[in-house]
């Protein structure tokens, strides 16, 4: 089986968010996919299997399967476009646990069509502010994560969470965001998910399914440019239409080979 390592939401290698993409020829049991993901030891490994007019797509962290992942979907589309698994003028259908997701090439970038997962205001869970080391201006909760706005871009970039404490909060992850100090971006964010085996995810497409609607309301605009301020960093272009969020970015293959087990 062919396997690829792809940096997603970047146009240069060794930035953005790395994902492994495995092209399956036949269905595999969950335990096998989980073992491969643990072996890859990246934030997500995607498994693609041809299905009708598209591909069945599943995502695994080194510890668990997740229901929605943006960067590994973008990486999967990149691999299919690059290997002739899909024509570059096609729309790829991905059949996932979050419904049908779509990917297409737009202005030289890959654009994903994802469901919006807006946050709703929620009580601050015990220990969250202490674990992050900041005071929250606003706390919400999405389908998957807690959502925290803080006072400044500088605060987001300077976060140094207590990951042990953060992992005890019963949620997939914690999105932390603020308006951007740079004219190039509308907002910045970081995403912490130690409960699923990744202390900090470098660039998180699924988090922008909540960030996009939130900042669209705040800024009164439906097209935004976001920066995820992890060590690797990455740019996500966000466009909103009805209950869908369109996420666009680049991707670079940094390694490819064969899986021998």
Structural description of this entry:
By secondary structure, the chain is α+β, with helices and mostly antiparallel strands. It has 2 domains: 2-113 and 247-258, Diaminopimelate Epimerase, Chain A, domain 1; 120-242, Diaminopimelate Epimerase, Chain A, domain 1. It contains 6 helices and 18 strands. The protein has helices at residues 30-40, 71-82, 128-132, 153-158, 163-167, 208-219, and strands at 2-8, 17-23, 44-51, 54-60, 65-66, 92-96, 99-106, 109-115, 120-121, 138-141, 145-149, 173-179, 187-193, 198-201, 223-228, 234-241, 244-249, 251-258. β6 (92-96) and β7 (99-106) form a beta hairpin. The protein is globular, with a radius of gyration of 17 Å. The model has no long low-confidence stretch (mean pLDDT 97).
Q: Sheet bearing the most strands, described?
A: 18 strands, mixed
Average pLDDT, to the nearest integer? 97
Number-wise, the strands total 18
Strand fraction equals 35-45%
Query: What is the CATH first-level class name of the largest domain?
Result: Alpha Beta
Structural class: alpha+beta
